[in-house]
Amino acid sequence: MDDGNPGQGAWLGIGQYWPREPFRKFHIRTQRWSVMVCHRRAGKTVGCVADLVLDAKHTQKQEARFAYIAPQYNQAKDVAWMYVKRLTADIPGVQLNESELRADFQNGARIRLYGADNADRLRGIYLDGCILDEFADMRPSVWGEVIRPMLMDRQGWAAFIGTPKGRNEFFRVYDRAVSDPEWFALLLRASDSGLITVNEIESARKELTPEQFEQR
User: Fold this and answer.
1) Cα(54)–Cα(72) distance, integer angstroms
2) What's the structural domain count of the chain?
């Protein structure tokens, strides 16, 4: 969310959103599946919420359904709901439901926030696209047993995003994706992105344990 660059204008007609350079390729990807391993404060969550809003605004599907899924429901509210409200503020006819963390569009599309801690709440619905944020903190079975079947009949897409946390299921998703042309894969380290100053990176290196620094 580059609120400091209003002169660049909106991108694809969404409020004040102008994607950071690493995420522009994500927005124009053609692959159905995506995985992005990014350092903290890189902007991956706002970029992915913007992608949901883009799809909801422009979809040609009837009654399209999109979801942002965090490890816990309260995380979804704390992390993403503000972005949903901000990025839909200038779109005519969008109705927000605070109690259900839901945005309804004039064309019948809907974005809703969920927590993987109550995955059964997702059962029985369909999805045209979803974001799984901090997938490493979710039970791996949530994807295979709950979310993947929800994407089947309408051939919905999914994006896995998170920070490095060792060789877990999220790591295995990325490791498989980098050699599969059906996947969009992005690895963004703080030392390479240019989004965090060198001084800040070195300060963090001194203050954190090696394990904590690798998750920054």
Assistant:
1) 24
2) 1
